[in-house]
Amino acid sequence: MNAKKRFLRVVPLMAFMLLLAGCGEQGLTALDPMGPQSQWIFDNMLLSLYVMALVTVVVFVIFFIVVMKFRQKDGDNDYPEQTHGNTKLEVAWTVIPIFLLAILAVPTITGQFYLSVDAEDIAEEEEETEGAGDVDEEVDEEDLQDDAYVIEVTGHQFWWEFDYPEGFTTGNDVYIPAEEEVVFQLEAEDVMHSFWVPALGGKVDNIPGVTNHVWLEADDPGVYMGKCAELCGPSHALMDFKLIALEEDDYASWNEEMQQEEEEPEETLAQEGREQFEDQGCIACHAVDGEGSAQGPTLTNFGDRTTIAGFLENNEENLRDWIRDPGALKQGVNMPASPGMEDDELDAIIAYLDSLERLDDETKEDIDL
Amino acid sequence: MVSEATNTRKKSVLWDWLTTVDHKKIAILYLIAGTLFFVKAGLMAVLFRIQLIAPEMEFISGQTFNELVTMHGTIMLFLAATPLIFAFANFAIPLQIGARDVAFPFVNALGFWLFLSGGILLSISWFFGGAPDAGWTSYVPLASREFGGLGIDFYVLGLQISGFGTLISGINFIVTIINMRAPGMTMMRLPLFCWTMLVTSMLIVFAFTPLAAGLALLMLDRIFDAQFFIPGEGGNVVLWQHIFWIFGHPEVYILVMPAFGIISEVVPAFSKKRLFGYTSMVFAVLIIGFLSFMVWLHHMFTVGVGPIANSVFAIATMTIAVPTGIKIFNWLFTMWGGKIKFTTAMHFGASFVPTFVLGGVTGVMLAMAPVDHLYHDTYFVVAHFHYIIVGGIVLGLLAGLFYWYPKMFGHKLNETLGIIFFWIFYIGFHLTFFVQHILGLIGMPRRVYTYLEGQGMDTMNFISSVGAFLMSVAIIILVINIIYSALKAERITEKDPWDARTLEWATSTPVAEYNFAQTPQVRSLDPVFYEKIHGNGEMKPAEPLDEIHMPNGSILPFIMGVGMFIAGFGFISFHMDLFISPYVIIAIGGITFFGAMAARSLQNDHGYHIDKETVESMEKELS
After folding, report:
1. Euclidean distance between CA atoms A322 and A319, whole angstroms
2. Do B142 and A232 touch (CB under 8 A)?
3. Pick the CATH number of B22-554+605-622 from 3.40.50.150, 3.90.180.10, 3.40.50.300, 1.20.210.10
4. Fold entry, domain A268-367
5. Which of A77, B188, B231, B559 could be bridged to A209 by S-S, CB 3.0 to 4.6 A?
6. What is the ipTM of this complex?
7. Which UniProt key words apply to this protein (chain B) (predicted)?
């Protein structure tokens, strides 16, 4: 009996786990956690799932007994015994759920602090160090590095801007060092967005006029997919981004590289493209190395990107289509179509954009970018 | 009899329905309007499920998709579920408490016409440059003038007007239930459906008022350039979310509580047993009603209000599971030891219990605030609330439809077609929504019009869409059933075709316009059942047979609805290029509305009396 009961409890769970096993793309799904935060969330999700599965099984068992056993037989028209209730039973199913909820209430509270306090503390510390920075800048900058690595995330319709403490900016791709807690300071430019990397942790909203924080940590170097989780307009569905975690050394050298001035492109076509980039007015919205306006995503490391605009595979054909008419691919974007651009001008710009690389090939291979 | 009958026959059918203040006819108006909106919003769901059937489909654009999901959610909650609940509430409450009508019949009619004019105002947005597109929650700044389309003006005004209708109907139900119970019907003998509607009506009064305030602020922002919700101008974005969810969370209970009530009528009736633990059920309803106001922040765990607020609201939210659990087990033990008759109504009534549990347990999972950072705004949430809304509210409403149908229309719905409908709908429902739990966990945010190939979402979205098609096939079968039954089904005249328990089954079928010729004397909970066992099977009258005072019909509620519609359209037209000034339109609408109101105030309408002889002959004819 006992074994049977236990079996009944396990069956739906097993079925559910089997169902989950084949699910989702690595680096996206929250069912395959890849950082301490997502691991915590996943474990507690399972805890609540087990408790709730227990409740469900009890209800289902009673339900099936009832519908099997207590059907009216043909010709039996007598009324069954009319009971008013049963105080003991009613007390039981009031008290037992309270115990079950208590089991869940403890991690709910501790977890809420585990997930959010750090970010706020760190932000405070940062303010303090910044304030004290006037007195002794060097020492405090070091402190800042030790205490929290804060990347500013700004949500735009429909792309992501990432500002690093070292002063440079990336768009749609964010790089972090692996095995290190990184704090993301969340803001929004136009409407609400929500910053979410499912494999690494929970989402927190980007709200205009409000500053939020979330910390994330990746156990291993790799590429993690991120999404916007708050409805932000027609192309909300396409507001994806990539979070790229690098080995500490790789990150340091990438970071160093990003701070350097851009080198003159080697190819002549790319050189021509650079001129076109200015002549065609691309630079009015897209900065490269901090030069130009930051109205649109920065293109400093465009050659490293796996995607155009966060969702299109980064290849020549797609890039051509994108520059010709971005609105056709991503409804509501601010980038204007360029119907008048000559093919050779376009080729040059594409060559130039592809030349904008800041990651070495070895690192790219390591993380399978 | 003769004079009355010729009197009604002289009026055209249309005029009769436009002017009626009879709660039974208003119930049918609500039922028809609610069903039409339900089918409309369902079709929208089918359209966007076609878009999501495969990755990167190009069936509809992102903009259209947002308009469709916004309208689907808004219509389903405000213009389908609410009126359908009001349909049954209007029909059943006066009958269940032994009253001749609701407390304010005129207001009741006004409530319906305001609801309908608001609903139509919202619906015509498609013809004026697009429907609202900021989600049914209309979060600012997406819903502000700067970022949102003209459609959101229709959302604001349409919901405002239909909300007024809901609000006055709620007040009407409270007064009716508190004041108009038959002699002997103490509060603790009140049928559970009336209890749930009483609590629901109180929630309406306390929840629709903040909604009205919020919508008014949003209207000021959008039409008169105020800055309540504009960041950078001193406004606050999160303010809207607080106001919206202070309304929005109770709203869920406004819809699901009457479903609880219907199940608490249907399950005992077809189990032939008294509701198990009646008293604890009543207290569970009251506690749920109270707690529903304490938990709005659980919709905002990711907004960043801090760990303390999140924790408090998380625990408060979990607490709701306790009274809900009490109800679940009480229903199960009502059936336990009973003699269950599986009619179509009971199929829906019984299947409600486990289905609602599935929605409830994910509710507790969602209440764990830190884990909610994973679920929030994903398909997991979509799955959860559809298990509550379809698995709870819709199953409850369908149970109520099959249960009360013979009393409302004088014939049963076809049982064979009904059971086929049940199974197709039920299977379709689980196919559609169960997989969405997993879709959410593997990273599918809600309100996305497309998803990329190769993210592991293809199969489950396909299954989900197929389920949605099955559900629409089921609804077609329901419509066929309604038409078929209207043509073929045997007319019934028996008072109590289900061998049921509560007072509505003591009236004649069809119900006379005055409901009860003599107000019944209630001697117990489940009065009709009590008289079957302890009496002669007839209710004892509490008063001698005498002439009956009835209210006159009136066209004024309809005119007031039209006036509100015109005025509402006037407010929207500030941002349209019309040949006529918005102020003129608002003035026309305002004069129509307030003119009708003045006419009502100045009119000396004492109603009319049906004399004793007429009542006697009508009763003879009906029995």
Report:
1. 5
2. yes
3. 1.20.210.10
4. Immunoglobulin-like (2.60.40)
5. B231
6. 0.92
7. Cell membrane, Copper, Electron transport, Heme, Iron, Membrane, Metal-binding, Respiratory chain, Translocase, Transmembrane, Transmembrane helix, Transport
